[in-house]
Amino acid sequence: MTVDELCSILGERKRLVGVGRWTKVHAQLRLTAAVEVDGATLPGITFMAATNFARPDEAVALQLKAEIKQKPRPFARVDWRGSPHGNLTHHCARMKYIDAGRTHFHDTNLHRHIGFDELFLGRLNLPVAAPITPEPTTYQDLLALSADLLHIDNLTSISIPPWQPPTFFI
Question: Which of 55, 58, 100, 102 has its CA 20 to 30 A from that of 133?
């Protein structure tokens, strides 16, 4: 698989199939699904949504992953109200020093100039991100925007995470 092939997969109209339930994994909630194009499931390509169990409407990641060297690695990701992303490494090329803020899109196409092995077998984790403005105000708005960015027709049908914010007793 090449970065160009992953860019092509990102650009295809897709659907999620076999959408699982939100599952708690340590401090995270995760939901996964297979991905299909034109009725055929894409082998080695999955969708994963993740968020912090105790932080409603914050730190949500919606990503497409490819099986690379027997490990699922993200190749496109939308981060909503997550950690700030400053595009600070030399890998960011024309996006260097552009503050992508807490809500941003790690578009596969922004990574074409990085070698495949360096991008996916090292520690880069999609170093380039474009800011998303205006920021989606609700989880449903996030799904609608991400459906367009990731080209997933039925993304808006996934359920709201069962967040459980901490309760404080006085």
Answer: 55
